[in-house]
């Protein structure tokens, strides 16, 4: 009887410890999710890479984000995009995130940002947006830019947060060359319900955190912003060679941890197939 009780207690203790270790690992040690898509809109043999950072929520990885900065430098992406919720709605001190973007801009002049619901929910939102612009981050809320790399040209468009009704997709796509490859940045994946037949080849989103907590078979426990789309994490092929990608994010909000859903940034490679 004592042996059986001891075994049960050991099993419970081992389960608790392993769960806590997994929570720490998934929350504090981020991974790089590598994604590849093809397109006939850029020459065969050509390619470019996009590093996507989403839903940081003012979280820090290492002293002054040194772990994240070091990884971004190693990946050496063509462009860097931040798809919203860089801060939390309760963030009052922006110094950590300002330091992060300063480091990003120092290593890559192509750093682009679209707003998320937490930026708009922060009472100091305008101060934060001004700070990003002062640090040479390009704001793409409801606008677009033509990106010229060594052998590739493409459109990069962005919409302000859909869930807080700051988005304006027609304005974001105004004047683009519809024959060129087009990437759209949107914090929430719900935006896809508004762009039927729009010339968008790849949409990069965040917001859902992939549920932040996931379980086998069940999937995400709580995933924000996908109630009408069913999209909470990963790459979703669409018609005509188009794609929607939902990054599950690198930070946390609400519950201060992740489980079976590791923190991540994403490196997306777009390769020509023409």
UniProtKB/TrEMBL annotation:
GO molecular function: metal ion binding; UDP-2,3-diacylglucosamine hydrolase activity
InterPro entries in the record: Calcineurin-like_PHP, Metallo-depent_PP-like, Metallophosphoesterase_sf
GO BP terms in the entry: lipid A biosynthetic process
Keyword entries, A-Z: Hydrolase, Metal-binding
One GO cellular component, as annotated: membrane
Hydrolase as UniProt keyword: yes
Domain Calcineurin-like phosphoesterase: 49-210
Pfam families hit by this protein: Metallophos (PF00149)
Extent of the signal sequence: none
Protein name: Phosphoesterase
Organism: Paraliobacillus quinghaiensis
